[in-house]
C-alpha cells in the first residue's frame, strides 16, 4: 500500500473522473492519475502563456481517479454567464473547457501593484480554486523557516 506524506497545510483531493468531463487542470496541482485516465496537453493562448507562465493546461479523458495537491483547501465555485468570477492568478486549479477567461486586474489602477493579476471567468459549470496558491504557500513556509532559524537556541 503506497503512503504519501505532505507538509503541514497541504491538501490532497481525489476526484472521481467521468468519461465526458470537459475540464482543464493546472499541471502544478496534479499528483497522480489512476489507470483508465489519459492526460492530454492543451496549449494556452499566447497572451496567457506570457503572463501566467504555464504553457499548457491538462485535459483528462477516461474514467478513474485524479489526485490533486494544493497549498490550501480546494473550493468549487459555480460559474454563470451573467456574472464574472475573479480568481487570483495562482489560485485557479481547474475550469471547464467551455469557460471564457481572460487576465485582468481586479479593482482600480493601483490593484496591479498590490493585488496582482486575476482571471475573469464566465461560462457554465464549476471551477476549482485553492485557498492559497502553491507559490504563496512556499513563500509562507520559507518565511516561517527563516523566523524559526533566527530564534535564539534554535538549531
Q: Write down the domain tally.
A: 1
* Succession of helices and strands: EEEEHEEEEEEHEEH
CATH architecture: 4-Layer Sandwich
**Net shape:** globular
Characterization of this structure:
This protein has 155 residues and is an alpha+beta fold. It has a single domain (11-148), classed as Mitochondrial biogenesis AIM24 (Double-stranded beta-helix). Helices cover 18% and strands 43% of the residues. It has helices at residues 46-52, 111-114, 134-150, and strands spanning 11-17, 23-25, 30-33, 37-43, 56-62, 64-70, 74-78, 85-88, 92-96, 100-105, 117-122, 126-130. The strands form 3 sheets. A 6-stranded antiparallel β-sheet has the order 4-5-2-9-12-7, with no helix packed on it. Strands 1-6-3 form a 3-stranded antiparallel β-sheet, with no helix packed on it. The longest helix is centred in the last third of the chain and has 17 residues, at 134-150. The chain is globular. The two termini are 35 Å apart. The model has no long low-confidence stretch (mean pLDDT 81).
Amino acid at each position: 500500500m503506497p503512503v504519501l506524506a505532505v507538509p503541514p497545510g497541504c491538501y490532497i483531493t481525489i476526484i472521481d473522473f467521468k468519461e465526458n468531463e470537459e475540464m482543464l487542470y493546472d499541471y502544478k496541482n496534479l499528483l497522480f492519475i489512476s489507470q483508465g485516465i489519459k492526460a492530454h496537453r492543451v496549449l494556452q493562448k499566447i497572451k496567457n502563456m506570457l503572463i501566467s507562465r504555464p504553457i499548457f493546461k491538462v485535459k483528462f479523458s477516461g474514467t478513474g481517479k485524479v489526485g490533486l495537491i494544493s497549498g490550501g483547501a480546494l473550493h468549487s465555485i459555480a460559474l454563470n454567464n451573467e456574472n464574472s468570477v475573479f480568481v487570483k492568478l495562482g489560485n485557479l486549479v481547474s475550469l471547464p473547457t467551455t469557460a471564457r477567461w481572460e487576465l485582468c486586474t481586479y479593482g482600480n489602477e493601483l490593484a496591479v501593484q498590490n493585488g496582482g493579476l486575476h482571471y475573469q471567468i464566465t461560462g457554465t459549470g464549476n471551477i476549482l480554486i485553492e485557498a492559497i496558491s502553491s507559490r504563496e504557500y512556499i513563500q509562507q513556509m520559507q518565511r516561517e523557516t527563516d523566523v524559526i532559524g533566527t530564534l535564539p537556541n534554535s538549531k
